[in-house]
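Field reference: "sequence" (input) and "structure" (output). Example, L-ascorbate oxidase:
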Amino acid sequence: MVEILAYRSLVKLLALCHFISLAAVVTVEARIRHYRWEVKYEYKSPDCFKKLAITINGGTPGPKILAQQADTIVVELKNSLLTENVAIHWHGIRQIGTPWSDGTEGVTQCPIFPGDTFIYKFVVDRAGSYLYHAHYGIQREAGLYGSITVSVPNGESEPFAYDYDRSIILNDWFHKSTYEQAVGLSSIPFVWVGEPQSLLINGRGRFNCSILATPSLEVGVCNTTNPECSPYILTVIPGKTYRLRIGSLTSLSALNFQIEGHNMTVVEADGHYLEPFQTKNLYIYSGETYSVLVTANQDPSRNYWVTTNVVSRKPATPTGLAILNYYPKYFKKSPPTLPTTGPLWNDTVPRLAQSLSIKAHKSFIHSPPLTSDKVIVLLNTQNKIDGYYRWSLNNVSFSLPHTPYLIALKENLNLNHVFDQTPPPENYDFKNYDIYAVAENVNATSSNGIYRLKFNTTVDIILQNANTMIVNNSETHPWHLHGHDFWVLGYGTGKFDMMKDVGKYNLVNPIMKNTVPVHPYGWTALRFRADNPGVWAFHCHLESHFYMGMGVVFEAGVEKVGKLPSSVMGCGETKGFHRP
């Protein structure tokens, strides 16, 4: 009888392991976690409308990576896109000692060519909630993304308690292909991508197929009975507390997230613990992750709506819907109420208030340097270059080189052939520039020059927002820094004043993050230490904005980087270099 019970326990354990690794081939050897992924196009209907999506092992979102702090992750990635390159960025993983695995095409590696297999290998050095996604062209928009959960080491505890752990990825979804969108953004006349057709919660949404009911529409292209677009259901046990790791990988939209009738206690942001605060409305920007605690303490005889809505842009996209289901009742039954439409889309006051309320947890404060060695002010503007629409920083629009910076600098290539040796400007005409008006001269220049920072120095970045080329319009930009976390020293409205606003910095308990918003007509101040050898992108996390030039690159201590694997080479000036 004992042997039978042991056998049954083993069967249950194996079944659980199979469930965890359902979408990927995963083995665990001495804290080295192996994943074997194949990237390819498949027809998918995440919002009931069938279109080509980029999948990993047949799924979008891709497999969830589960690891423990200090584990090594090995991802063997085969590119089966046939006619398209690919690269994957591990968002929030600092890549200490492995900058070539950051996955940023043009910055840290050549793209993975069709038919090739590339191995990413890196250490997850800190517990927390992270993401991964395509970093080639605007492929993230096509469905190539997923989540990373890193648990604390054995014997360590977190400053909050919960019973169960769940991950939720929020995304927006377009029906046009990435090719159509990229061509429109690069054309004269300019063709904007428009607003997304749907909002997805864990890869599921619901598009109103009836508005497409035309004789020319192929039968089955939009099918609301397709199980792929049935709403995501979060089943909870009454009385239990759940940690929801919520990440946003939207291509365009800033979002609000709510759970009907339930409060959320925010406890983590981008892998850092924060002083808990309670909210019913969580504002989240592309590239951010938050952990919230939710207790299933409402009437268990009914279900509740989980909703996400667009903010900061005039909504033209329906509410994204999921269902909070109280076990064991009515698994798929819709709640009896109408879904919330969310807060006012153009009310910046509560969004700025949330940003200001996020402080480091009192027991996990990483004190920032009290002063910086360099200050770079980046004016975010919309411009034109030779009639093409672009986004710019200090009137310079960024473009990627054909040879990745990391390879060019480390291999001592003829840099004049690779990228512009003149660094971008570090400030703008503060005195005369009116951030509330369309610029008198909207013309800009293009460059692939980079900021070369002295290793281990402290750098302040001031992100200054301004009016676009549309009257009375300023957009929200979420900025993401690769290879580092930064201290968020402050936010403000209007034009940043170097004499007055520096004195308002929070140097006591600032949160550390890797992604942060700059609000309309406002500023955000960051501080980071350039202590991770390599070359690192810093850019707006909206796909179309970065594609149109809204980014910069920092280099520091590249001479300290170890020998580059030849697998990252093979493009630009390294075409003759060996690739396995």
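The first strand starts at residue 25 and ends at 29.
The helical segments are 2-20, 178-185, 348-357, 405-410, 543-547.
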